[in-house]
Amino acid sequence: MMRNAETGFGLYLANAGVVHAAVRRLQVWPGHADYDDLVEEGMLIYVAYYQRYRDPVRTQAERTKFNKLAGLFVYYGLLKIVTREQRRPAVHERSARREPPADTDPQDWLVKWLGEDAEVALVARLRSQLTPREQAVFESMVDQAFTRAETRAYLGLSQSNLTNVLRRIHAKYQTLKAAAAAESPV
Fold first, then answer.
1. What is the C-alpha to C-alpha distance for residues 35 and 45, in angstroms, rounded to an integer?
2. Which of 1, 30, 151, 172 could join 146 in a cystine, given CB atoms 3.0 to 4.6 angstroms apart?
């Protein structure tokens, strides 16, 4: 039985202490920078739980039973959020450490090559042969001067996907360069 979110929010307002207790149970106290954010997240979890709750919540006993269950549900939901946020910087640091520096990365030829004396016609031909994803990577790294990490974040690519896209762009460039060299007499 789906319940109304307004009714759930009204129940939350009458029992806001349930969410505050769940936040304090996480050792986050009022005055902490994340306290208000966690209370807001807890409120959303509380209302969502109310909407899925099957038993009626009319009497004081039913309300007490619901609040005990909702308190646990809110606590574990917030614990999941806090744990994810604590892991996020560590994951970012690991991926940043695995990324090779630009000087030794053969895939960063793109920015170096265009910084030197690239032929405008060759760049235009290269752009016309790129797939939409390759164009997005090319534009972000060349036109917007994004780093590899910024490009990955901007386009939502994994490190291996970005490397594969850069390799495909590089292969197309090599093909065009070989064709241009074959056409022009030395």
1. 15
2. 151
From 108, 116, 129, 143, select the one nearest 173 (Cα to Cα).
129
| Helix-helix angle 148-155:159-183, to 10 degrees | 110
| Contacts made by residues 35-41, CB under 8 angstroms, sequence distance 24+ | 38/78, 38/81, 38/82, 41/77, 41/78, 41/81
- SS3 percent helix, strand, coil of the chain, rounded to 5, is 75, 0, 25
What is the rounded CA–CA span in Å between residue 66 and residue 18? 10
Distance of CA 69 to the CA centre of its chain: 31
- Per-residue pLDDT reduced to its tens digit, 122-172: 788 888 899 999 999 988 888 777 888 888 888 988 888 888 888 888 888
